[in-house]
Amino acid sequence: MEELTVAWRSEGYLEEKKSEFFSFLVPSKSLADFEGFISELRQKNREMCHFCSAVRLRSPTLVERASDDGEPSGTAGRPILNVLQRKNLINCGIVVMRKFGGTLLGTGGLTRAYSEAAQSCVLSAKTGRMVPFSMMKGTIGYKEWAKIEKLVREYDKSPQTSFGENIQVSFLVREDKVNNILMLLKEVLGGEEPFSPIERRMIFESI
After folding, report:
1. What is the pTM of this model?
2. Contacts for 3 with CB less than 8 Å, ≥ 6 apart
3. Do 16 and 100 contact (CB within 8 A), yes or no?
4. Are 128 and 7 in contact (CB under 8 A)?
5. What is the DSSP letter of 63?
């Protein structure tokens, strides 16, 4: 199953016997990044009694963490982590903060509530994959640019250009398409090879 991730925060909500569960799915680059988000939630929501969470990070080995944050062992962090695992989401985490409603839910009720709250923020998320791109850069004459501009824009709709005596051009191409565009450019330019990859970038593509 393909590993997916998210690029933006999404939120969810569940009410169970007057207890309210607010859930957040957030992209995370590291454990410190994720823990910083939890700390921020705690500071802004002091009326909440629990901030349960789970996170999965690929760097390059898979790291998983889950926290019950004071709830009975296994009733919060593990159900939240299970939601991430079922969707095979990485480099992101879920936090579910609870506002107690006065009625104890029991271990089964807590497990179900935290699982459903976690699912609610995943359902509202836009998931996708991180795709490797290469930043191509080169200097080319005005006549040559007129020949290849349309081709370049088929790969990158908004290439960066700087006009002077010649034109400096930078554009992004999917890593698996680099050899293809270099071959096409060489063909159009009669053997010239003014462009080369200078930087690798990971870019989010929704599915």
Report:
1. 0.83
2. 58, 88, 89, 90, 129
3. no
4. yes
5. E
Q: Which one-letter amino acid corresponds to residue 154?
A: E
Domain ranges in the chain? Answer: 5-125, 131-206
Q: Do 18 and 104 form a contact (C-beta atoms < 8 A)?
A: no
Average pLDDT over residues 112-131: 96
Task: List, for residues 134-159, the tens digit of each pLDDT value.
Answer: 999 999 999 999 999 999 999 999 99
Tell me the angle at which helices 77-87 and 106-123 cross, rounded to the nearest 10 degrees.
Answer: 40
Q: How far apart are CA 48 and CA 20, in angstroms?
A: 9
Distance separating alpha carbons of residues 45 and 8, to the nearest angstrom: 21
3-state DSSP helix/strand/coil percent for the chain, to nearest 5? 35, 40, 25
Closest CA to 96 of 69, 123, 72: 69
Protein fold of 131-206: Alpha-Beta Plaits (3.30.70)
Least Cα distance to 144 among 169, 127, 124, 172 occurs for: 169
What is the Cα–Cα distance from 14 to 119, expressed in whole angstroms? 10
Tokens representing residue 127 in the block: 């998931």
Domain 5-125 CATH class label: alpha beta
